[in-house]
Amino acid sequence: MSISSFKVAALGACLCLAAGRAPPADFSPSLAARVSESPADGAIFRAAGYSPLTSGARANAVGDIVTVVLVERTQATKSATQNADRGGAIGLTPPGTGPFAFFAGSDLNMSGAQSFKGTGQAAQSNALTGEISVTIAAAYANGTMLVRGEKTVTLNRGEEMMRLSGLIRSADIGVDNRIASTRVADARITYTGRGEVARASRQGWLQRFFSIVSPF
To answer: Quick one: DSSP state of residue 115?
Structure first.
């Protein structure tokens, strides 16, 4: 990263913090350190680019590529039911003689009833399948690694963008450098789209305004 781009990124982060917002996540690819070509000294062993035979070609260093297989599937349901009933009655028998004798028996009868019934249900399910290749941004002493990356597919009528970041374990990486997304800790997966199709499936600004202010 050049000095000018670093200044721009630092300035953007300061502005976001001053405005009370978190700075945007960096999904730029992490590149490995350039291997300097050592002079030929006749030795068979070269320390540059050395990888032990026990690890093979498995990704374990900054800049290595890991393919994340997206197998996200979530489903949630919730239901609640409540019933309440209440009733009461009172009746008085007026005297047959005296000043209250003109009251009829039906004039002093009271009764009341109250009932309530509430039902609520909610269901949600999500599924995301596919693959995305990311790079290792940092490797830690406990065997975990920070991976991040993005993939952009431009179609004739729009653009699809997928971003992923999280922590993985070196033990969970397969021999073909693939790992399931369910093994990614603190995973942040974003799938968005831009273009005519995305705009057509979104409400207009005036309709969104009335949806906010409408009391119904």
So the answer is: E
- The tokens describing 95, both together, are 């005297």
Give the full edge-to-edge strand order of the sheet including 109-139.
178-180, 65-91, 109-139, 144-155, 158-169, 185-195
The answer to whether the CB of 37 falls within 8 A of the CB of 148 is no
Instruction: Please return the burial class of 181, using the count of CB atoms within 10 Å of its CB with bins 0-12, 13-18 and 19+.
Output: buried
Rounded to the nearest 10°, the torsion over CA 50, 52, 53, 54 is -160
3-state helix, strand, coil in the chain (%, to 5): 20, 45, 35
Tens digit of pLDDT for each residue in 177-208?
999 999 999 999 998 888 777 677 777 777 77
Alpha-carbon span 63 to 146, nearest angstrom: 11
pTM value is: 0.59
Structure tokens at 206: 């005036």
| Contact yes or no for 180/69 (Cβ under 8 A) | yes
CA angle (185, 132, 60) in 5-degree steps: 60
Using a pLDDT cut of 90, give the percent of the chain over it: 21
Helices (DSSP H) in the chain: which residue ranges?
3-18, 196-200, 205-213
Q: Between β-strands 178-180 and 65-91, what pairing exists: parallel, antiparallel or unpaired?
A: parallel
> CA dihedral defined by 2, 4, 6, 7, rounded to 10 degrees?
160
Averaged pLDDT, 27-51: 61
Q: Which two tokens stand for residue 131?
A: 């693959």
